Automatic annotation (TrEMBL):
<dbReference type="InterPro" id="IPR013785">
    <property type="entry name" value="Aldolase_TIM"/>
</dbReference>
<dbReference type="GO" id="GO:0008675">
    <property type="term" value="F:2-dehydro-3-deoxy-phosphogluconate aldolase activity"/>
</dbReference>
<dbReference type="Pfam" id="PF01081">
    <property type="entry name" value="Aldolase"/>
</dbReference>
<protein>
    <submittedName>
        <fullName>Bifunctional 2-keto-4-hydroxyglutarate aldolase/2-keto-3-deoxy-6-phosphogluconate aldolase</fullName>
        <ecNumber>4.1.2.14</ecNumber>
        <ecNumber>4.1.3.16</ecNumber>
    </submittedName>
</protein>
<comment type="pathway">
    <text>Carbohydrate acid metabolism.</text>
</comment>
<keyword id="KW-0456">Lyase</keyword>
<keyword id="KW-0119">Carbohydrate metabolism</keyword>
<dbReference type="GO" id="GO:0008700">
    <property type="term" value="F:(R,S)-4-hydroxy-2-oxoglutarate aldolase activity"/>
</dbReference>
<dbReference type="InterPro" id="IPR000887">
    <property type="entry name" value="Aldlse_KDPG_KHG"/>
</dbReference>
<comment type="subunit">
    <text>Homotrimer.</text>
</comment>
<comment type="similarity">
    <text>Belongs to the KHG/KDPG aldolase family.</text>
</comment>
Length: 206
């Protein structure tokens, strides 16, 4: 899949499930629940032990797989070779950007300031992850797009069913959701995570 195709799918999808499992088995179950609930993009975080197993388990699923919590270029390359079609980090890292550019993979770095965003743009980032988004309000996107109208923002952290539509209406090209899925899975198991995923997709389509 070419870089522009991945970016198009991310912006069409609008919802990316950020999967953090206490182990590979939990991450696989959470990912499959999200897919069954209609979320077509999954970010597998490198905080999950043995995350390689999760990539392998989802290889045949009809889902856009990405890697999250990528902190260094070595991890970025590992993720890409494991099948990640996009790479996400909580910060901006020039070396990660270089690796992603080399392989033609979108890099979505976490940024909070205009300075960080401009630097990320200079290194080829097409979508900026606003993280943690719970430190901001949706109006922040409009404030950024004033001086930087071409910046595309994906807020992550603090997104829930009550505010997802506010962020999308404010101009977010997509949102990252995660902690809610873990809570639903812990409280009600697989079916609860599937149902919550469906609700997120319904909200994003309004």
């Amino acid at each position: 899949m070419l870089k522009h195709e991945v970016l198009s799918r991310l912006t069409e999808t609008k919802v990316v499930a950020v999967i953090r499992g206490s182990n590979a088995e939990e991450a696989i179950a959470l990912s499959k629940a999200a897919v069954q609930g209609g979320i077509p993009a999954i970010e597998l975080t490198y905080t999950t032990p043995h995350v390689q197993k999760v990539f392998e388990a989802l290889a045949e699923e009809d889902v856009l797989l990405g890697a999250g919590t990528v902190l260094d270029p070595e991890t970025a390359r590992h993720a890409i070779l494991a099948g990640a079609k996009f790479v996400v980090s909580p910060h901006f890292n020039e070396e990660i950007a270089t690796v992603c550019n080399r392989y033609g993979i979108p890099y979505l770095p976490g940024c909070m300031t205009i300075r960080e965003m401009v630097k990320a743009l200079e290194f080829g980032s097409d979508i900026i992850k606003l993280f943690p988004a719970n430190n901001f309000t949706p109006s922040f996107i409009k404030s950024v797009n004033g001086p930087l109208p071409h910046v595309r923002i994906m807020p992550t952290g603090g997104i829930n069913l009550n505010n997802i539509q506010d962020w999308l209406s404010a101009g977010a090209v997509a949102v990252g959701i995660g902690s809610d899925l873990n809570k639903a899975y812990a409280a009600g198991g697989f079916d609860a995570a599937v149902e919550l995923s469906r609700k997120y997709m319904q909200q994003s389509a309004q």
